[in-house]
């Protein structure tokens, strides 16, 4: 993008640039006709100058309305301005005219465009303004003064045009450098998002009696939320984490925590996995090397074996179980997040999932969808009771997140033990959503 393109695209339209000169010429005409001390050597010339300015303003309006701000024909407007100002100067006393300084506006208009030729155009326009009385005809004595004034004024305004043009050129260079850097950064962010999407859990199959669904909708290109599930020797491990902060730094920590938790696959105790994750954060990110200063993460990590769910919660506290009998149980804890360095042990608790029970884990971004209050649990329960399928609750929250501006990542995982009337070989194949994607993970 060139400087001219940038200036003309972002609201600096021909009409906006022409408006100040139009107002000032109108004011000059009014003052010339009403103030006795001001010289009016030719009223027809004064009216002609006003008409030319009106014509230039109409051209500017048409080009703005037609979207021709980028057309080179737009420079017809300052050309008309120079002609009008020359006639204005001649009709208001030539050397005695107080309105010569108005030439600075079309000079800046032209000089602000990229290209040294516009400095020459500005100088020629200034010369036209000074030479108009000379061309029309004035006394011999005045000719010498006008020629001297021509040299001085053209040099002054040409110098001004050169300075404005150089500043514009430097701005254009910086603009292009900034755009190039932003392009590189965006490419890196897109690559980071691709890597993060590749870390989404793969489809589970042949998990008898259970169905799974989950989604993660980051607020930015790269998010700090993550969810995961994978098979273990005796069942399935489920994780939902929320790293403090957003962006690439939070995404790096999320990837590191996920990797550490997966490395604890052979340990059946969920709290042991949290200890490893905390140690990893304390070792790798305690100095804020990931760009967050403090790298703590709230986590819900569980192991599902048969109908037994053994879970540990590190400062997350956003898990609810909807029982088939209509009761609701919140899985809360007083344990702190991992990575703070204050607590290095977490308590493993146990609950049973009976036929038809549904467990929903979500990040604090879901709280924002309902005003940020703890009554979000009530809203989650109400949504789930309309349709207890995991895919249904994930669908409802995903659609709400896409229809509402949210400054935090929105992540949800739902697991349901199949009702007693379901077949014993109910499959739980799932397709996890891509970060920032259009849908969610659903049972196949």
> What do we call the CATH topology of the largest domain?
Phosphatase 2c, domain 1
Q: Which structural category do the helix and sheet elements fall into?
A: alpha+beta
CATH hierarchy: architecture of the largest domain: 4-Layer Sandwich
Order of helices and strands: HHHHHHHEEEHHEEEEEEHHHE
From the N-terminal CA to the C-terminal CA, the straight-line distance is 47 Å
Continuous helix count: 12
Identify the CATH homologous superfamily of the largest domain.
Answer: PPM-type phosphatase domain
Rg measurement, Å: 36 Å
Low-confidence residue ranges: 285-293, 422-444
Largest sheet: 5 strands, antiparallel
Strand content: 5-15%
Major sheet: arrangement of strands: 1-10-9-6-7
Work out the number of β strands: 10
| Main CATH class of the largest domain | Alpha Beta
Percentage of residues in helical conformation: 40-55%
Q: What is the mean predicted local confidence, pLDDT? A: 81
Shape: elongated
Counting structural domains, the number is 2
Describe the protein in words.
This protein is α+β, with helices and mostly antiparallel strands and 444 residues long. It folds into 2 domains: 3-182, no CATH class; 201-417, Phosphatase 2c, domain 1. Helix content is 49%, strand content 15%. The protein has helices at 3-9, 14-34, 43-65, 76-91, 104-111, 117-136, 140-198, 247-262, 270-284, 364-369, 376-386, 390-403, and strands at 210-217, 225-232, 235-243, 297-305, 308-314, 319-322, 328-330, 348-352, 358-362, 410-417. A 5-stranded antiparallel sheet has the order 1-10-9-6-7. Helix 2 (14-34) packs antiparallel against helix 3. The longest helix is centred in the middle third of the chain and has 59 residues, at 140-198. It is elongated.
């Amino acid at each position: 993008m060139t400087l001219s393109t940038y200036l003309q695209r972002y609201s600096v339209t021909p009409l906006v640039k022409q408006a100040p000169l139009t107002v000032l010429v109108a004011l000059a005409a009014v003052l010339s006709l009403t103030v006795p001390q001001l010289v009016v050597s030719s009223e027809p010339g004064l009216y002609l100058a006003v008409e030319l300015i009106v014509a230039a303003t109409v051209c500017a309006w048409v080009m703005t309305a037609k979207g021709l701000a980028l057309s080179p024909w737009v420079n017809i407007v300052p050309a008309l301005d120079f002609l009008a100002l020359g006639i204005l100067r001649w009709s208001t006393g030539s050397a005695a005219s107080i309105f010569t300084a108005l030439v600075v506006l079309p000079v800046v208009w032209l000089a602000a465009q990229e290209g040294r030729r516009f400095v020459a155009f500005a100088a020629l326009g200034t010369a036209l303004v000074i030479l108009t009385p000379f061309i029309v005809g004035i006394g011999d004595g005045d000719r010498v003064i006008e020629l001297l004034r021509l040299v001085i004024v053209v040099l002054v305004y040409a110098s001004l045009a050169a300075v404005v043009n150089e500043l514009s050129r430097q701005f254009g260079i910086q603009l292009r450098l900034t755009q190039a850097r932003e392009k590189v950064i965006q490419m890196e962010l897109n690559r980071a998002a691709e890597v993060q999407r590749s870390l989404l859990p793969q489809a589970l199959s042949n998990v008898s009696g259970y169905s799974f669904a989950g989604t993660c909708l980051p607020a930015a290109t790269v998010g700090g939320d993550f969810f995961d599930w994978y098979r273990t020797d005796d069942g399935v491990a489920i994780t939902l984490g929320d790293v403090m902060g957003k962006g690439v730094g939070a995404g790096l920590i999320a990837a590191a925590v996920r990797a550490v938790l997966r490395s604890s696959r052979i340990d059946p105790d969920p709290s042991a996995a949290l200890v490893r994750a905390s140690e990893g954060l304390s070792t790798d990110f305690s100095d804020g090397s990931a760009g967050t200063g403090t790298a703590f993460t709230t986590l819900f990590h569980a192991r599902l074996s048969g109908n037994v769910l053994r879970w540990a919660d590190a400062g997350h506290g956003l898990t609810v179980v909807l029982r088939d009998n209509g009761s609701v149980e919140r899985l809360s804890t007083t344990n702190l997040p991992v990575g703070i360095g204050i607590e290095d042990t977490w308590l493993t608790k146990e609950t049973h999932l009976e036929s038809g029970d549904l467990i929903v884990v979500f990040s604090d971004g879901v709280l924002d969808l309902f005003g940020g209050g703890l009554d979000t649990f009530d809203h989650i329960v109400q949504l789930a009771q309309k349709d207890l399928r995991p895919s249904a609750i994930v669908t409802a929250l995903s659609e709400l997140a896409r229809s509402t501006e949210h400054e935090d990542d929105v992540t949800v995982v739902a697991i349901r033990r199949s009702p007693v009337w379901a077949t014993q070989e109910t499959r739980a194949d799932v397709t996890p959503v891509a970060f920032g994607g259009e849908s969610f993970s659903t049972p196949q």
